Amino acid sequence: MKWPILSIPVQQPLTVQYMEREPSVVETFYEYHPDLDWEKRADWVERSGQLRVNRTRLADVLTRYNERFNNSQAVRDSIERLKDERSLVVVGGQQGGLFTGPLLVLYKAISIIRMAQEAEIKLARPVVPVFWIAGEDHDFDEVDHTYVVTSDPAVQRIRMEKPGDRRAPVSHVKLDAAAWESVLTELESSLPKTEFTPGLLEHLRESVATCATLSDSFAATMGRLFGEYGLVLIDSADDGLRELEAPMFEAILQHNDRLEKAYDTSEQQLASYGYSPQAIRSEHSANVFLVRDGERHLLHKENGQFVNHRQGISCTMEQMLDIARNSPQELSNNVLTRPLMQDYLFPVLATVLGPGEIAYWAQTKQAFRELGMRMPIIWPRMGFTCIEGTLNKLLDKYELSVEDVVYHYEARRASWLQAQDALHLDERFETLRAEVDTRYTELLEDLVASLPALGKLGATNHNKVLEQIDFLHHRAKDAMAKQHESGLRQWERLHVSLHPLGKPQERVLNMLGYACRYGENWFAMLMEAPVVWRGEHRIALLS
User: Fold this and answer.
1) Does the keyword Ligase apply (predicted)?
2) For 268-291, how does the pLDDT look when each residue is reduced to its tens digit (9 = 90+)?
3) Using an 8 Å Cβ cutoff, are 489 and 136 in contact?
4) What does DSSP assign to residue 392?
5) What DSSP string runs through 251-304?
6) I want to staple 319 with a disulfide (CB 3.0 to 4.6 A). Which of 15, 315, 332, 486 is the partner?
7) Cα–Cα distance between 469 and 430 in angstroms, integer?
8) Global model pTM greater than 0.70
9) What's 472-495 look like in SS3?
């Protein structure tokens, strides 16, 4: 099968340079070359086991979590393999979005699995795929919705109402049965009615019946989709995981000033190369959150204290270390300390990241080194734009490429519609308007010269005549468009399917539309796609 490349611009200049393997970028801001240093990283991980948590304790936590949501034999085997001191991990993560969120989440999971498989073959040692659910984040509005294409065609937003407005970690926000039923009812009315739809909705209802949070529902669905491939799941807000994290929280707190200087150093290096930091730090941020009364609050350092003035929080170093040792569930990482924590927990060969993540990880190299660690290899996740058979036929019918729809849609649509105009409306109305405008202008010049009092009335009348010509022009075009309504609907279906909301498909649409048409394992063909290592975005023809 062919996998044509679709050029999707990356917004982060640093990430572009990394994907292109620019030596100065790879060497300055990252620790390992993504193509050349697999053995080097594997050897370092094996030699630095004392820097990480005990593998058996980690396996116990992973077992308890995955028994709840992802209890397949392949996953149990993956966790067992983690106990092998030579085993490595390929890890990546995302917040747990509603019904898994946008397609890119699935593509990240696919990338993690396939890259782990390739690494295991090349390195001749166990490599386990792990998906990290960022359930400790409190940005509920980033995960409370998803999008599907309706029969209209239109892009429909399905949204879960958040109970209250507390800054609680997403994994701590409890959702009741009525809230789930509301979004499921809306989803059901928006999805295509196929032989697969009833079973799919039944699966969703079964999973939410036993899931109290978005993160739990996400884990249950991801387990059902990817458990057979041995993908291990873990929620960053899991209490068992927090117990393991206690020593690293201590280290982050004890070395906090030096870590701040390390982040400063990396950001100064970025600036010297003309790059802006992707993750914005406030001055004297501790890069750690404290969870109080169920809410997550960022801490800053002031006069030897860890503070959040808005919440009236002020803790000494001794108090913070006591929390880390005895109540680590009250602490939470931010985007710049999470990479350190991830590397403390897992023997990470490589982490799979999206474009924005690759950019902000560049701010962490010196922080890793400050704690005696090394940033792992970074592999850009794979990306896809999926084209169903019916859409492919429409592309052929209208002689369009995917690039035409993504980048030149309005122009190509207007050109097609104009070609349907046997009356040549635009040309004839433009000629008429120009002629009337010229004749009126000549007449008014003569009138004003002889009868100045008519100047204002003449100008008003002139504009009204032109407005009436424009009005008839627009009405004629509307009538013609209505005559070609079926064709225009087909154009719109191409647009909302391939470039919904003016964005890459993978960043907007949910996988459920494809699951309804092709079954829940619709992505199996993507699992067979050759692995690419530079973030190439490919076109996938579904059939």
Assistant:
1) yes
2) 999 999 999 999 999 999 999 999
3) no
4) H
5) HHHHTHHHHHHHHHHHHHHHHHTT---SSPPPTTEEEEEEEETTEEEEEEEETT
6) 315
7) 9
8) yes
9) HHHHHHHHHHHHCHHHHHHHHHHH
